[in-house]
Amino acid sequence: MDRVDKMKEKFFDRLRSLPQTGQGFHGALQGCVNYGIMAGISEHEIFALVRASIPSGGNRKVADKEIWDAIKTAVADVPNYTGNRRSGYVAPTKPVPAISDGQATRQRMIESSEISDEADLWEHSPIRIDWEPSEDTLHFLERMYHPEEQVFIGDRKSAGIIGTNIRSAKDWIEYFGGGGQTAPHIIINPLSGELAPTKSGDGATYRGDHNVKTFKYCLVEFDDLSREDQIRFWMSPAARKLPVACLVDSGGKSIHAWLRLSGIASMDDWAKEIKSKLYDQFLIPLGVDSQCSNPARLSRLPGHLRGEKYQRILWMNTPAEGR
Predict the structure, then answer these.
(1) Residue ranges per domain, the chain?
(2) Less packed terminus of the chain by CB within 10 Å, N or C?
(3) What is the pLDDT of residues 253-272, one digit of tens each?
């Protein structure tokens, strides 16, 4: 057994023996995390494993910040540890934006577009949207999800409840097809249907980031562009090279772009490839809302009537059967 394997073994031993808070938890947490870093385990994987291993009871709840602070301390304490070539720890570096002047780049993209109104956007949609906005929900679910995938549809602050606001896409289609009432929001990615820790660590949930089963989409939204400029941006030659699956009218001032993903199999992949690279290096410099960068992000459900205006599909590039 080489040194890295020994560090990994010690990490999992410490993980299994974490005490309750009030019984030396903080020191045990730091020692556990130190071994994880020395074993070359990614920071996000360490966080997820620790969060799931904290024993119930104790005299207080453990916040995410406490775990991340321990991870940061471990990184600072062993910045030169390299273990061996196959899995040693390498200290992470802050990603450098790939776009040096995001505002100027965005403006050039907007000005390069020949499309600025909804009529032209509709004409250029690869999928012909020839149904009424009230039918959007059914078409959206049929094209964006596999029938068995578990989807949250509900209010922003509602707890996830299996069989109520978390159902298979097939069950939702049957429900809405039978006259069921729509809700304003949908979580963009399919869920596992199993409990997982909340982001704050204050409990468990069925509808958080750690409940995501399949990382199919990420959401992009601008808060500071006019509606016409949002259309121009998404129909610019550069933006049309992105894997946009759907553009959704929020029923307000925004257009929500759903980007199709591939090769993202875990929260660690999401953190590295989507959060750190796609958002931090490309999208956020362009002025995209940084709050959209989590996998259990809420978007507006097409087909829901928001006040007097439908949330609706404006443009879609998802083949029949949606897969």
Answers:
(1) 3-77, 102-316
(2) N
(3) 999 999 999 999 999 899 98
